[in-house]
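Recall the central idea of this unit: under ordinary conditions, the amino acid sequence of a chain determines the structure it adopts. In this exercise we apply that idea directly, starting from the sequence alone.
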Amino acid sequence: MDSGYLGLLMLVLVAGLISVVMILASTILGPKKVTPYKESPYECGVQPIGSARERFPIKFYLVAILFVLFDIEIVFLWGWMAYFKHGSPAFQVFSFIEVLIYMSTWVLGYVYAIRVGALEWDDTVSLAKGTTPDAEPQAVGAGS
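Accordingly, the structure predicted from this sequence is:
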């Protein structure tokens, strides 16, 4: 075995061992008494209102996806920026154009999200223009 990977192997083994020890310790030392309060979906001193299985607006998913896209964008740009100044001039020109294309699609995605109201948190407004959550659903092709 190459000694260059020995440190990585040790890190994986130690991380796995710590994980197993923590899981076993929590099951052995943790409380076992099940109460209705512990079974409730929200356990922070506030009485839960409604069911934990109720539906909530799709806007939460849209914001989560926007957040993930922002994180991925930063990961790609960080590596590109680290190598950009040391690359050849041909690489710099090509990669700069590629990053401009990438960033333009990213900005267009955010403009679309803002345009459809994905970042508006008012409960009375739906993503479909002119409708509210209490409004009756319209048939496809109906309306304006």
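Residues 64 and 111 are 16 Å apart (CA to CA).
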